[in-house]
């Protein structure tokens, strides 16, 4: 069975942010990759998880729960910015509890490998695997550089990214898309007023 191409405009971000980026805007309308198991299969494949986890209903439910928890944790009070969300997303005040609730379904087990010390993720139920891995990745990003976890500065964009620029001033999910739109809007406003 051929794999469906990933339709999202921004891919390749760390796992937690890539999960958030399964929702995006196209022509003023909110798109959602995770409306079914076919979209879940695309997301799992894009992150190298397709050989390890099944794209089934249980995994989809858990991934959606993790996405809602991460969205509340990353966006905080700004989680309401943008289009209305009918998915029952977690409100910002419960973000910590929601993230912890996902993390309760797995753990890191220290191991000794031929190369030396290692770690292996273990899950109470394998269907929690992708959700748990994405949520744990969020903790890793917080430990690395919490101020580099960003939401695109364009008011109509819902995408997130991890700012890897040297000076940490990236504002847009993509300079070619959102950054260019902002520049064009500023130019239009200047020429209109002149």
Straight-line distance between termini: 57 Å
Low-confidence stretches: 80-90
Provide the gyration radius in Å.
18 Å
Average pLDDT works out at 87
Order of helices and strands: HEEHHHEEHEEH
- Fraction of helical residues: 40-55%
Briefly, what is this?
This protein is an alpha+beta fold and 194 residues long. The protein has helices at 15-20, 37-46, 57-75, 95-103, 129-144, 175-193, and strands spanning 23-26, 29-32, 106-113, 116-123, 149-151, 160-162. Mean pLDDT is 87; it is low at 80-90.
Write the layout of secondary structure elements.
Blueprint: H1 15-20, E1 23-26, E2 29-32, H2 37-46, H3 57-75, H4 95-103, E3 106-113, E4 116-123, H5 129-144, E5 149-151, E6 160-162, H6 175-193
Antiparallel strand pairs: 1-2, 3-4, 5-6
Helix pairs in contact: 3-4, 3-5
Walk me through this protein's architecture.
With 194 residues, the chain is an alpha+beta fold. Helix content is 41%, strand content 15%. It has six helices and six strands, in the order αββαααββαββα. It has helices at 15-20, 37-46, 57-75, 95-103, 129-144, 175-193, and strands at residues 23-26, 29-32, 106-113, 116-123, 149-151, 160-162. The protein has a two-stranded antiparallel sheet. It has a two-stranded antiparallel ribbon with strand order 3-4. A hairpin with an 8-residue loop joins strand 5 and strand 6 (160-162). It is globular, with a radius of gyration of 18 Å. The model is unreliable at 80-90 (pLDDT under 50).
């Amino acid at each position: 069975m051929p794999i469906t191409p990933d339709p999202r405009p921004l891919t390749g971000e760390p796992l937690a942010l890539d999960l958030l980026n399964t929702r995006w805007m196209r022509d003023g309308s909110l798109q959602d990759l995770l409306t079914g198991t076919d979209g879940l299969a695309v997301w799992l494949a894009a992150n190298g998880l397709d050989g390890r986890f099944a794209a089934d209903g249980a995994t989809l439910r858990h991934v959606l729960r993790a996405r809602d928890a991460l969205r509340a944790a990353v966006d905080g009070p700004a989680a309401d910015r943008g289009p209305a969300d009918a998915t029952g997303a977690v409100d910002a005040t419960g973000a910590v509890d929601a993230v912890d609730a996902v993390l309760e379904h797995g753990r890191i087990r220290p191991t000794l490998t031929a190369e030396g010390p290692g770690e292996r993720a273990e899950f109470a139920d394998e269907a929690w695997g992708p959700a748990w891995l994405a949520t744990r990745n969020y903790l890793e990003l917080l430990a690395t550089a919490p101020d580099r976890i960003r939401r695109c500065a364009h008011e109509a964009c819902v995408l997130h990214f991890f700012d890897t620029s040297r000076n940490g001033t990236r504002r847009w999910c993509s300079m070619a898309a959102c950054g260019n739109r902002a520049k064009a809007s500023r130019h239009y406003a200047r020429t209109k007023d002149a």
